[in-house]
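Quick one, tokens below. Sequence please?
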């Protein structure tokens, strides 16, 4: 005996099956699509971890020392200290000088005198050796030849403030040389202390020979002033 299913029931079953199929497709495929981007995002590193150009530039700039951090001691280190005048040598600005005639000193046509140097500074100094001596006119110009050096040993002379040393000088009379002398009036002596390039003027009026081949004076090394 054949049982007939009503057409309405077959249509309802077909609709139900179609609905289930559509539901299965809708719930399965989108889920697979959503998991793909999520896994790729977790596996790949983000670009935020990489240093930006501005960050690397600032790090390198801070690591390198600036010009202001360089030491500036070289400017002061090169400066050397100022030494005392001539390293302890008596200079013209530390001395006074006068010319005195030795008691009983002289020879035919010549006179023995001595230049007396006195330390006028506040510190001791050394005056050892031959002074330079020459005649000068009233304008301070040299007249004739400078003094020759008398052979003698030179001893070290140290002057405390106020102490004196002497340099013996022999002066020959200019009148002894006649017309060849070229007599010229003089006003004093220019005296260079030993080992100094500055000079003192010592008063002495008289006459000297302008001819430079005539030497009127000889000078000896300095020595302590006798009491």
């Amino acid at each position: 005996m054949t049982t007939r299913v009503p057409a309405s029931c077959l249509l309802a079953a077909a609709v139900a099956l179609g609905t289930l199929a559509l539901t299965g497709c809708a719930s399965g495929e989108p889920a697979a699509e959503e998991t793909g981007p999520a896994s790729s995002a977790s596996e790949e590193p983000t670009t935020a971890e990489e240093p930006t150009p501005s960050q690397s530039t600032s790090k390198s700039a801070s690591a390198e020392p600036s010009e202001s951090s360089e030491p500036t001691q070289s400017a002061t280190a090169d400066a050397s200290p100022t030494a005392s005048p001539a390293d302890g040598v008596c200079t013209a600005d530390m001395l006074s000088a006068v010319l005195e005639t030795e008691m009983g000193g002289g020879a035919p046509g010549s006179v023995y005198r001595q230049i007396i140097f006195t330390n006028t500074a506040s510190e001791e100094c050394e005056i050892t050796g031959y002074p330079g001596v020459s005649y000068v006119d009233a304008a301070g110009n040299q007249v004739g030849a400078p003094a020759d050096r008398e052979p003698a040993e030179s001893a070290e002379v140290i002057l405390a403030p106020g102490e004196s040393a002497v340099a013996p000088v022999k002066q020959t009379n200019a009148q002894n040389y006649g017309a060849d002398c070229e007599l010229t009036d003089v006003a004093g002596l220019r005296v260079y202390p030993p080992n100094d390039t500055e000079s003192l003027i010592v008063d002495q009026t008289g006459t000297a020979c302008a001819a430079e081949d005539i030497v009127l004076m000889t000078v000896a090394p300095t020595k302590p002033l006798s009491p």
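The two ends are 176 Å apart (CA to CA). The CA atoms of residues 31 and 205 lie 131 Å apart.
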